[in-house]
């Protein structure tokens, strides 16, 4: 039986990515060497790095003046790399959950951080609206998809100041107007590759403005100058990322991804609303994530939670448990999750409802 993988991260990857990376682990680019054994400076791997960067630019239609970097350390490392590079003394953050909080905590080491709005009052189950961003900040930081709470900012807006976005869990799920952002970053392990590589898309003009001295590895300009090869990059995850990027292209690009993601999300949210046992945790439709679909048992069926979890597990569903801070269930419907898996979950919910 095929296991349906709804894990929030690390998460499902396209079968092509898994198979091609597995093959390269045995014999990379006909070198007779494993991808794990080759020099990152070999011409074969340099070609992988260059193609991955080019594919980012093509798929996201990245304008001139931006650079794409592949770094180690995770999105959490970017929480301090960003203020290090971009914050002279004041920045603004939108508090939409745990990741935003972690990002803010690091920025506070560098100066004043303005929390422009927060959805903490309702367990982060909505996206704050109608807030004002102070116009004297060095940048405004948003988390476009809140992996834990299942909320998502799905449009690229102008806030009048340089915009920075954590897109760890929704990159490549929709077209992005990169020109609206000074910097976009994310860990790859949600929608792109196995854990170990972090992507950064940065506008070159945004750099070099802070007065502090930067450690070499923290300075984005180091990695721009060396094409993400200043030190040893995460070779295997970068290769896997390239395989995913090629798969996205073959599928028709990010516009097509968005269509499929909208369709998958609609099928699941509709069932959550229809089914008497469940309800979504995010009430406002416009705020609902297309990537992490969170739902809980209705109050009168609360005691069935564990039963449903066991029932779903028995039916080949993996990774459905909601984050410990939210409870209930979370079905992550990343690009690589087939529509068939969403339908299998809906069938499972219907069957369970019929039994009760
Ligand atoms: C998972 C996640 C992170 C943390 O990523 P790491 O690579 O583990 O540091 C940050 N932001 C968001 C939105 C995430 O989903």
TrEMBL record:
<comment type="function">
    <text>Catalyzes the reversible conversion of 3-phosphohydroxypyruvate to phosphoserine and of 3-hydroxy-2-oxo-4-phosphonooxybutanoate to phosphohydroxythreonine.</text>
</comment>
<dbReference type="InterPro" id="IPR000192">
    <property type="entry name" value="Aminotrans_V_dom"/>
</dbReference>
<keyword id="KW-0718">Serine biosynthesis</keyword>
<comment type="similarity">
    <text>Belongs to the class-V pyridoxal-phosphate-dependent aminotransferase family. SerC subfamily.</text>
</comment>
<feature type="domain" description="Aminotransferase class V">
    <location>
        <begin position="5"/>
        <end position="297"/>
    </location>
</feature>
<dbReference type="InterPro" id="IPR020578">
    <property type="entry name" value="Aminotrans_V_PyrdxlP_BS"/>
</dbReference>
<feature type="binding site">
    <location>
        <begin position="75"/>
        <end position="76"/>
    </location>
    <ligand>
        <name>pyridoxal 5'-phosphate</name>
    </ligand>
</feature>
<keyword id="KW-0032">Aminotransferase</keyword>
<comment type="pathway">
    <text>Amino-acid biosynthesis; L-serine biosynthesis; L-serine from 3-phospho-D-glycerate: step 2/3.</text>
</comment>
<keyword id="KW-0663">Pyridoxal phosphate</keyword>
<comment type="pathway">
    <text>Cofactor biosynthesis; pyridoxine 5'-phosphate biosynthesis; pyridoxine 5'-phosphate from D-erythrose 4-phosphate: step 3/5.</text>
</comment>
<keyword id="KW-0963">Cytoplasm</keyword>
<dbReference type="GO" id="GO:0005737">
    <property type="term" value="C:cytoplasm"/>
</dbReference>
<feature type="binding site">
    <location>
        <position position="147"/>
    </location>
    <ligand>
        <name>pyridoxal 5'-phosphate</name>
    </ligand>
</feature>
<dbReference type="GO" id="GO:0006564">
    <property type="term" value="P:L-serine biosynthetic process"/>
</dbReference>
<feature type="binding site">
    <location>
        <position position="99"/>
    </location>
    <ligand>
        <name>pyridoxal 5'-phosphate</name>
    </ligand>
</feature>
<feature type="binding site">
    <location>
        <position position="189"/>
    </location>
    <ligand>
        <name>pyridoxal 5'-phosphate</name>
    </ligand>
</feature>
<feature type="binding site">
    <location>
        <position position="41"/>
    </location>
    <ligand>
        <name>L-glutamate</name>
    </ligand>
</feature>
<dbReference type="InterPro" id="IPR015424">
    <property type="entry name" value="PyrdxlP-dep_Trfase"/>
</dbReference>
<comment type="subunit">
    <text>Homodimer.</text>
</comment>
<keyword id="KW-0808">Transferase</keyword>
<feature type="binding site">
    <location>
        <position position="166"/>
    </location>
    <ligand>
        <name>pyridoxal 5'-phosphate</name>
    </ligand>
</feature>
<dbReference type="Pfam" id="PF00266">
    <property type="entry name" value="Aminotran_5"/>
</dbReference>
<dbReference type="GO" id="GO:0004648">
    <property type="term" value="F:O-phospho-L-serine:2-oxoglutarate aminotransferase activity"/>
</dbReference>
<dbReference type="InterPro" id="IPR015421">
    <property type="entry name" value="PyrdxlP-dep_Trfase_major"/>
</dbReference>
<dbReference type="GO" id="GO:0030170">
    <property type="term" value="F:pyridoxal phosphate binding"/>
</dbReference>
<dbReference type="InterPro" id="IPR022278">
    <property type="entry name" value="Pser_aminoTfrase"/>
</dbReference>
<keyword id="KW-0664">Pyridoxine biosynthesis</keyword>
<dbReference type="GO" id="GO:0008615">
    <property type="term" value="P:pyridoxine biosynthetic process"/>
</dbReference>
<dbReference type="InterPro" id="IPR015422">
    <property type="entry name" value="PyrdxlP-dep_Trfase_small"/>
</dbReference>
<feature type="binding site">
    <location>
        <begin position="231"/>
        <end position="232"/>
    </location>
    <ligand>
        <name>pyridoxal 5'-phosphate</name>
    </ligand>
</feature>
<protein>
    <recommendedName>
        <fullName>Phosphoserine aminotransferase</fullName>
        <ecNumber>2.6.1.52</ecNumber>
    </recommendedName>
</protein>
<keyword id="KW-0028">Amino-acid biosynthesis</keyword>
<feature type="modified residue" description="N6-(pyridoxal phosphate)lysine">
    <location>
        <position position="190"/>
    </location>
</feature>
């Amino acid at each position: 039986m095929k296991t349906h993988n709804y894990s929030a991260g690390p998460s499902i990857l396209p079968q092509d990515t898994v198979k091609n990376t597995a093959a390269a682990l045995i014999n990379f680019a006909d070198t007779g060497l494993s991808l794990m054994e080759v020099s990152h400076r070999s011409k074969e791997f340099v070609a992988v790095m260059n193609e991955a960067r080019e594919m980012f630019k093509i798929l996201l239609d990245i304008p001139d003046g931006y650079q794409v970097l592949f770094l180690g350390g995770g999105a959490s490392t970017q929480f301090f790399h960003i203020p290090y590079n971009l914050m002279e003394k004041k920045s603004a953050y939108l508090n939409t959950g745990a990741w935003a909080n972690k990002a803010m905590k690091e920025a506070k080491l560098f100066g004043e951080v303005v929390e422009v709005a927060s959805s903490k009052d309702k367990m982060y189950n909505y996206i704050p609206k109608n807030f004002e961003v102070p116009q004297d900040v060095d940048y405004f930081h948003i988390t476009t998809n809140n992996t834990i709470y299942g909320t998502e900012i799905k449009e690229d807006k102008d806030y009048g100041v340089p915009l920075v976005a954590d897109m760890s869990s929704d990159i490549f799920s929709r077209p992005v107007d990169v020109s609206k952002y000074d910097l976009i970053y994310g860990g790859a392990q949600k929608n792109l590759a196995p854990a170990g590589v972090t992507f950064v898309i940065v506008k070159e003009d945004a750099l070099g403005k802070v007065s502090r001295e930067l450690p070499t590895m923290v300075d984005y300009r180091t990695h721009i100058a060396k094409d993400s090869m200043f030190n040893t990059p995460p070779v295997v995850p970068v290769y896997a990322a390239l395989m995913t990027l090629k798969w996205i292209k073959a599928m028709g690009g990010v516009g097509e991804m968005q269509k499929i993601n909208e369709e998958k999300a609609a099928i699941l949210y509709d069932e959550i609303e229809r089914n008497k046992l469940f309800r979504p945790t995010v009430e406002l439709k416009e705020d609902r994530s297309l990537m992490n679909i969170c739902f809980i048992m209705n109050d009168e069926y609360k005691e069935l939670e564990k039963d449903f979890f066991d029932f779903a597990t028995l039916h080949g569903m993996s990774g459905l448990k909601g984050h410990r801070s939210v409870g209930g269930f979370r079905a992550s419907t990343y690009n690589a999750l087939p529509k068939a898996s969403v339908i299998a979950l809906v069938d499972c919910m219907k069957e369970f409802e019929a039994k009760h």
